[in-house]
Amino acid sequence: MIPYKHEPFTDFSKEENNTAYLEALKKVEGYLGEEYPLIIGGERITTNDQIISYNPANKEEVIGSVSKANKELAEKAMQVADETFHTWKKVKPEIRADVLFKAAAIIRRRKHEISALLTKEAGKPWNEADADTAEAIDFLEYYGRQMLRLKDGQPVESRPGEFNRYDYIPLGVGVVISPWNFPFAIMAGTTVAAVVTGNTVLLKPASTTPVVAYKFVEILEEAGLPAGVVNYIPGSGAEVGDYLVDHPKTRFISFTGSRDVGLRINERASKLNEGQIWLKRVIAEMGGKDTIVVDKEADLELAAQSIVKSAFGFSGQKCSACSRAVIVEDVYDEVVARVEELTKGLSVGDPTDLSNFTGPVIDAAAFKKITSYIEIGKEEGRIVAGGTADDSKGFFVNPTVIVDVTPEARVMKEEIFGPVVAIAKAKDFDEALAIANNTEYGLTGAVITKNRMNQEKAREDFHVGNLYFNRGCTGAIVGYQPFGGFNMSGTDSKAGGPDYLQLHMQAKTTSETL
Ligand SMILES: NC(=O)c1ccc[n+]([C@@H]2O[C@H](COP(=O)([O-])OP(=O)(O)OC[C@H]3O[C@@H](n4cnc5c(N)ncnc54)[C@H](O)[C@@H]3O)[C@@H](O)[C@H]2O)c1
Ligand SMILES: N[C@@H](CCC=O)C(=O)O
Q1: Which residues is 162 bridged to in the sheet?
Q2: What is the pLDDT of residues 485-497, one digit of tens each?
Q3: Residues 411 and 266 in one domain
Q4: CA of 276 to the centre of ligand 2 (A)
Q5: Which residues belong to any copy of the Aldehyde dehydrogenase domain (predicted)?
């Protein structure tokens, strides 16, 4: 087994990669508008009620129509997953891991096609789509290897005349609920973590990006995953989501999405339903209001570049995005001026065109929410770049910089999830850190400083799950920067980290008297 190493990103300045991506876009365009059934126990089920997936850069373009599960079909999927659990849990961990390695190999071969589908379905620019696909490969390779490490449990002590063991066994049926913003990586990572540990899965992808999730389930089948281990059941969060979260046979829920839905799931999952004989486990990765702090002793060009890239990459639609910057007053004007200049140089447009830095936001609801926050920002601060939007063809919002806001401003405290960054001034580094900590979230943060003492202060006191020094606050790599946050950012489950798989298993102690 070769050691884990993360999947390299594609260099699109190379002619051959550029050509390959354009060909992949053509391939995807060749299958736009197709219909996709549910997959329950390997059976394809087509429903009259359909979810239509649109291209957010071109509202007229249908990516695909996907059958929509209702409560009855969710119940059928639950029965299948529950039955399949009894056979899948007996399959050796090595074989389960092999399915992941094979799936990684298939995705590697179809890498640009998957990424091109992300460009069309989620509006991801080439580099962002490429990173999403690479991260999915990383999850498969990393979790496969982690399972091989954990398959014989952990060592414990034994006294003379005694043989003690500490093993991990699977939990049961897991409901995996994934978001649209990493529609391949997070959907795939959360699914395979559950699968490789011996559980069966009901996969409910986000309704705006269900087609790429269907392609993933097909890849798992091709890799040899038995029918019924992963069941593909797109549907309404309110109907299918609530039904499965409440279901007495649900053993755990792996959710990634917004704070409000995460809280709802956590609350419902805590209630005992008739026939339920366990406490449901909830893994919840939720929102963020992530800050880059700029110290007075800092590389100011690096600071501005980091803010702009982390705020506006994929139109700020990352839980890790820099949606607030706090800059020490000595360097405030200089950094703000450079952020303004860089932002004004960004091009926004159809992400199929490599020359556009960023594309649309995901849908009409996101467009409305983000533009209404821009209006709030006009009252709370001063807009120095962007502030405009256009939804005539797709949902385009220009990267927006709001400066001179107070730490208590709504644009400084609430997750906007779009290309909007709010900037506040602090009198010194300590005040900057206090402002950075004044949200209910605690996901990512970055500090740009050359002052070692301030860096160490931040290492201790900046209360976020992922803290970065002298770089931006997005782009965690599986196995290198395990990802997850504190407080309202979720259960800090650290996807892509050494403790993640254990969340999908329970430990069993056996003790034999010799
Ligand atoms: N912390 C992380 O790792 C992480 C990663 C990606 C995204 N996010 C967060 O996700 C959010 C954006 O994603 P989104 O808009 O898809 O989030 P969302 O909460 O609207 O939806 C997430 C998923 O939950 C489902 N859902 C909705 N209502 C439900 C219910 N009542 N019961 C069960 N499921 C339900 C949706 O259909 C979707 O599949 C942002 O807040 C972002 O910060 C967090
Ligand atoms: N893991 C990603 C963010 C995932 C949430 O949107 C990052 O580190 O940028």
Answers
A1: 513
A2: 999 999 999 999 9
A3: no
A4: 34
A5: 49-509
